[in-house]
Design goal:
CATH superfamily of the largest domain: Jelly Rolls
Number of strands: 28
CATH class of the largest domain: Mainly Beta
Radius of gyration: 21 Å
Strand content: 35-45%
Shape: elongated
Helix content: under 10%
Strand order of the largest sheet: 2-1-5-8-11-13-14
Order of helices and strands: EEHEEEEEEEEEEEEEEEEEEEEEEEEEEH
Largest sheet: 7 strands, mixed
């Protein structure tokens, strides 16, 4: 991290960064409150406001590695903008921004993730269910597979079925359901050392971001006959829940708090060591 008298990049309207010194003096309109921490690789736009420690005990804003703060954005006390996250111009950030997230609005909400490939743009469109053969296909992300199960429509009600080990690549030791998630909320934001997971949106829709430390894909689960497998050492994020969404997750292992990797920088280090 650097303090307010050291170098950092300032992003001007033409998106060309300019390195300056003594940011709070040299760049009109940028306000940095007391004790604000900014990584030296961060990019700050003109007229941005980054608030410091306040009288309510909230800590100063923290801007982590390669994060980008757009012009006229405001970052409130207690907020951390994570690694490579992006705050769009004019946004008011009231809650911490996860690594890689893109936020916008007042209050700012997650609208996407940086450098994420949308599976809808692939040759096979996951929304055209009839175009996908039964079985699974590999995504760009290491070990992550997208599955299409058999569905039988009937006047009495439709049926979708899958078999463990044959179609889902493990026998689950536990499951959990995620539901009643406010649209603005984000779930996941972690990886596992040993546990694999299989996700199905049994109702509504959920966007799933999968990341192997090198590549990221985003998959929209909105059909009961579609599922996605996340092997160990895959960073997973679920967001953009529809109001009626119910996400079913099968896990290959029993719950173990030590199996979770919740720090994205630590996750990247582990991936490098495993390579």
């Amino acid at each position: 991290m650097v303090n307010t008298t050291e170098e950092l990049q300032v992003l001007y309207a033409d998106n060309s960064p300019l390195v300056v010194t003594r940011l709070h003096k040299e760049v009109p309109g940028v306000y940095l409150g007391p004790e604000v921490k900014i990584d030296e690789t961060a990019t700050i736009g003109p007229n941005a406001v980054l608030l410091g420690r306040d009288e309510n005990g909230n800590q100063a804003a923290v801007i982590e590695e390669n994060a980008k703060i757009g012009a006229n954005a405001t970052i409130l006390p207690g907020v951390t903008v994570g690694v490579r996250a992006q705050v769009n111009p004019g946004s008011v950030v009231t809650r911490s921004v996860p690594p890689l997230a893109i936020v916008e609005g007042n209050p700012a909400k997650i609208i996407g993730y940086v450098e994420t490939y949308d599976t809808q743009n692939q040759t096979t469109n996951i929304h055209d269910v009839d175009s996908i053969p039964l079985g699974f296909r590999q995504t760009r992300v290491k070990g992550v597979t997208l599955h299409h199960f058999n569905m039988v429509p009937d006047l009495r009600g439709s049926l979708s079925v899958g078999e463990f080990e044959r179609e889902i690549p493990f026998v689950p030791k536990r499951y959990f359901l995620v539901f009643d998630v406010p649209t603005a909320e984000t779930r996941g934001e972690h990886a596992h050392l040993q546990c694999g997971q299989f996700l199905i949106a049994v109702k509504g829709s959920v966007s799933v971001v999968v990341d192997d430390g090198m590549l990221r894909d985003e998959i929209l689960l909105d059909r009961q006959q579609m599922g996605v497998y996340l092997p160990p050492l895959t960073w997973g994020i679920q967001y953009n829940y529809s109001t009626d969404a119910v996400l079913l997750v099968f896990a290959s292992e029993f719950y173990d708090s030590e199996d979770y990797i919740r720090d994205y920088s630590k996750f990247l280090d582990l991936v490098k060591r495993a390579a």
